[in-house]
Amino acid sequence: MILQLLQQRGFVAFQELDRQLQASPATLRRDLEKLENAGRIVRVRGGARLVGDSSSASTAEIPKLSGVPFHQNVARHHEAKLAIGRAAAALCKPRESVIIDGGSTTLCMCPHLESLELQVLSNSLHIIDALLPQTGTRIAIPAGAVFREQNIVLSPFEDDGMGRYRASRMFMGAAAVGRHGVMQSDVILAQAERRLLERADELVLLVDSSKFEAPTGHVICTLDEVDIVVTDRNIRDEHARMLEQAGVRLIMAGLED
């Protein structure tokens, strides 16, 4: 997490680390010392900066996330994502409050939401753009940094302006799904999604069947925390059984549905 913050900002003050991260000052100092000894950071007066970054505390690097950029991911398994998006939208009730997490599969929900007059919280600029023409859809967006490759807004901290928001359900994608749970490739993305989950009564996971093949990454939640999985009809039997054993409702969507 320290390295992720430094990659976003170039410099981070020790007081900010102490205030924002769930670690004692002694633990933070030991971690900073280990990172400096490993040649990853340089400790300076009041904080730390990345090696090779001589900029001031007010100058940050362009934030990036690990994982596939959005423009590459959107074309993958596109037909399956269209079906999944339509089936997920059918779960929404008129005028309810929902969270739609950023992703190429959750984006496919948007064309089917116009008549529902939803209140939508989303961290995705792509989803916001798709919902803006829907005059009956109310839109909220959290505070944070813009990650350009995925076109999402994320903050690793609690003060993102959405502490009082409450949703009946959250629609979320994932990098992978396996017996350990739902996973993302980036730790900051995983932590931001955990906080969004706390604001929803129900979690609906939107993933095409390929996401069950190589489950690796940072765990967002365990399978028993997922209420519904919407996927395509190519899901393998063992993966369907895994969800069933975890008490997850499985919806298999097809283009003809």
From TrEMBL:
<dbReference type="InterPro" id="IPR050313">
    <property type="entry name" value="Carb_Metab_HTH_regulators"/>
</dbReference>
<protein>
    <recommendedName>
        <fullName>HTH deoR-type domain-containing protein</fullName>
    </recommendedName>
</protein>
<dbReference type="InterPro" id="IPR037171">
    <property type="entry name" value="NagB/RpiA_transferase-like"/>
</dbReference>
<dbReference type="InterPro" id="IPR036390">
    <property type="entry name" value="WH_DNA-bd_sf"/>
</dbReference>
<keyword id="KW-0804">Transcription</keyword>
<dbReference type="InterPro" id="IPR014036">
    <property type="entry name" value="DeoR-like_C"/>
</dbReference>
<keyword id="KW-0805">Transcription regulation</keyword>
<dbReference type="GO" id="GO:0003700">
    <property type="term" value="F:DNA-binding transcription factor activity"/>
</dbReference>
<dbReference type="InterPro" id="IPR036388">
    <property type="entry name" value="WH-like_DNA-bd_sf"/>
</dbReference>
<dbReference type="Pfam" id="PF00455">
    <property type="entry name" value="DeoRC"/>
</dbReference>
<dbReference type="Pfam" id="PF08220">
    <property type="entry name" value="HTH_DeoR"/>
</dbReference>
<feature type="domain" description="HTH deoR-type">
    <location>
        <begin position="1"/>
        <end position="50"/>
    </location>
</feature>
<dbReference type="InterPro" id="IPR001034">
    <property type="entry name" value="DeoR_HTH"/>
</dbReference>
